[in-house]
Amino acid sequence: MTDRKRILTGIRPTGALHLGHYAGALENWVRLQHDYECYFLIADYQVSDYADDIPRVREAVWEVALDWLAVGLDPEGSAFVIESLVPEHAELATLLGWFLPVSMLERNPTLKAEMAAMENPEDGSTERKSVPVAFYTYPVMQVANILMPRAHLVPVGEDQLPHIELTRETARRFNRRFKEVFPEPEALVGRVPRLVGIDGNAKMSKSRGNTIDLKDDAETVARKVRAMYGGPPRAANEPGRCDENPIFLYLRAFDPDTGGLAELEREYETRGVPNKVLKDRLTKVLNDLLDPFRERRAYYQARMRLVRDALASGSERMRRIARETMDMVHDALDLNYLEKY
Ligand code: ATP
Ligand code: MG
To answer: Is 82 helix (H, G, I), strand (E, B) or coil?
Structure first.
């Protein structure tokens, strides 16, 4: 049990989870949960961009936990952790910040893009915001999250890779300079590194409102798929290019009948297939995927006490490891002042 390698990964409690989270990350978590000792984190220290909407964060903690249970994560085998219930994360982030030059944050492409979007929202729907200090340093908090359980593997979507690189660099620096405390963790990107939004935007994302949520009911999925962007305008039976039609991106991501799909793609490019046929197929594919999730979600939703217990015991498990790691860190840095006399 204890000689299994460790996984640490997480999600921010800012809303219900969507197909992008599933294909980019969660699917790998479910697949790997029994081979690794897993710590799944609800990263509630990292929601500074939602600080004016704490009720939403509070609600989303439960939504995320329910979504995890819905997709089949097992809270007995893996620890479901609320970040702020393990305040050692904040301490470790503070100490690691001693060794990270600001230039490494300035260069981080994901952070740069997120800050730019915050300062200059392109859709005009969100008001322009100044970047909170805690937003600028959230990658350091993420480094602390990963290093805290001395994780070996971090299954995430593609946008998180710069943060994992930062983590590896921090572990190397710390180990070299003080003591070998942290393994250098590897990133593992999901089958679909970045799922596009239903509006055709490059990323399905809560903040853009272009998601299909894991908890959407069958009717909602059908409605969202009907409204999906289906490539450049084209008569129903005019051949098109699959790569220009995001419906195919979704079918490639989720349709288990790959043979049937290959045939459909050939037909689309030679004789033409109406978008309605594609959308009907996609609706069925997605609802088949989501049905078992909906069932499990309903089970736990009727038993929220089980969800609460999973979060409490998972956070407690993490806390034990966190104390162990912090002892190692204090020892490596020689910060045990009171032991002198
Ligand atoms: P959103 O972008 O929808 O507002 P988020 O960025 O706040 O969500 P995170 O908690 O940062 O969500 O992401 C959780 C995990 O899901 C990360 O590993 C991230 O890479 C992955 N992920 C999120 N959206 C997508 C997507 N569209 N495609 C693939 N992976 C994704
Ligand atoms: Mg994100």
So the answer is: strand
- For residue 161, report the distance from its CA to the centre of ligand 2, in Å: 11
Fold of 216-297: Tyrosyl-Transfer RNA Synthetase (1.10.240)
Which 3 state secondary structure label does DSSP give 74?
coil
Kindly give the pairing relationship between strand 79-82 and strand 37-42.
Answer: parallel
Which two tokens mark 330?
A: 């204090």
Q: What residues line ligand 1, using a CB cutoff of 6 Å?
A: 11-12, 14, 20-21, 24-25, 156-157, 159-160, 194-195, 203-207
Find the 218 Cα to ligand 1 centroid distance in Å: 23
Q: Are 39 and 73 in contact (CB under 8 A)?
A: no
Domain ranges of the chain: 6-196+303-339, 216-297
Mean pLDDT of successive 10-residue stretches along the chain, which has 341 residues: 88 97 96 98 97 97 98 98 98 96 96 92 70 97 98 96 97 97 97 92 89 98 96 88 95 97 97 95 98 98 98 98 98 93 94
Which CATH number applies to 6-196+303-339?
3.40.50.620
Confirm whether pTM is higher than 0.85.
Answer: yes
Atom of ligand 1 nearest to the CA of 192: 29
- Beta sheet of 153-156, edge-to-edge order: 79-82, 37-42, 6-11, 153-156, 186-189
C-alpha span between 153 and 184 (Å, rounded): 9
| Helix, coil or strand: residue 79 | strand
